[in-house]
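Sorry, can you check?
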Amino acid sequence: MLRSKDLNIIEKKTRTQILNQKSLSGGDINNLYLLETTTLPLVVKSNSIADFPNMFEYEKKGLEKLKQTKSIQIVDTINQINHNDLSFLILNYIKTSPETSEFWEKFGLQLNQLHQTQSISFGLDTPNYIGSLPQQNNWCTTWTEFYVTQRLEPQLKKIVEKGFLKELVTQFEKLYHQLDSLFPKEPASLLHGDLWNGNFISGENNTPWLIDPAIYFGHREMDIGMTMLFGGFDSIFYSAYNCENPLEKNWEERVPLTQLYPLLVHVNLFGNQYSEPIKSILNRFV
């Protein structure tokens, strides 16, 4: 639970009185709390400044960048605080509702609209995090250059240094030379960056809300591939997404290519049990 001195600084920065706190589930990386206050309920994420420097500063910037698009609801950031050894991100609490057909339709349409915020280059002005891992976002002129140098190579290097997947390095290098012909040419889209089923909320009135982003300007099929990594979203979501500005033909065949990055991340975070899908994808394309 949050310490008294932490509660005091949160009260001071939010100008409210905290009446009660409770721990929330779902915080794989951060500690997560729900605060009952004299005004509105707040969600507080906390973590070590030393272990994860600037994590919440980057997340706050990501949430604000997404919010500026006015395409989909983004949780409000109340404050970001560094106090002694801990960093805090204070967010509005979103009341949840069951996922309905209307929710999934809205979600698909609104994510497509988010992806219409575009850039001529791939990357971001700042680094950020994917889970607990630092994520670099140096600007690149092509998607292939970005995907190789900013996504696949850094994660693979970490894995090989741990003694895993050394036998796949040559296959990855061959794949790098094929990516330019495999991905359709599109402008860089603003992405959520970590869009699995734990990073959205079904709110009141069938409203989709995005949380926990790892944003960058990239190929929009990356967000779609991430939604399908752990079972996929409702089919209504994909149909709605493709109503306007549809994905290029054969997009479903490219989904495994987009999943290489999150799978490498999972090997780094959770271990070598995620290596088999990586091997399967490489064997399919190389």
Q: What stands out?
A: The chain has a mean pLDDT of 97. The two ends are 50 Å apart (CA to CA).
